[in-house]
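The material for today's practical consists of a large collection of protein records. Backbone structure tokens are a discrete shorthand for how the chain folds in space. An example says more than a description, so a record of this kind follows:
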Amino acid sequence: MKPLLRSLAPALLALTVALPFGTAVRAEPAPAIDARALRSIDVDAAAAWYRDNLGFRVVADRTTVQGRLVVLTRRGALVEIAEADVPAAPRPTDVETTASVMPQPVEVLVSDVDEEIEGLKGRGVLVLADPDDDLDGRFRTAWVRDPDGRTVALKEPLSGRSGHAS
């Protein structure tokens, strides 16, 4: 028996003994978490952008042998920003090109994407695409650019609503 299974065996045995025969046990799915590891030559500026513009909060800030690292979180999204030695390559500015050549965007769930975008525009954030309902009808999504040129998708779950007028 492998060491991990050996260490879990007593707990599993106790669980099976404690439950009456035929009892159904249903595990609840863990909440989905979008986690992104990002690199930036200016960790402070990148962390401040996610904090001030998107409402992330800093949960860790440390310096390691590899450099500075800041971890931020907001409603199921986790962003880890590590120090980079060189700036990122220039990014395309249109969302179609971005989607085809860029890595997955940072995805952030918001309660009102239209309101978020208006606030971001007021703060001078580059908006790549205004809010629009996704084709599958699950989200209303807008696209912005972070200070290091990465694409950020702001997604409002529509959850059965008829959506917004486009």
The chain is about 25% helix and 35% strand. The first strand starts at residue 34 and ends at 40. Confidence is low (pLDDT under 50) at residues 1-31. The chain has one domain: 34-157.
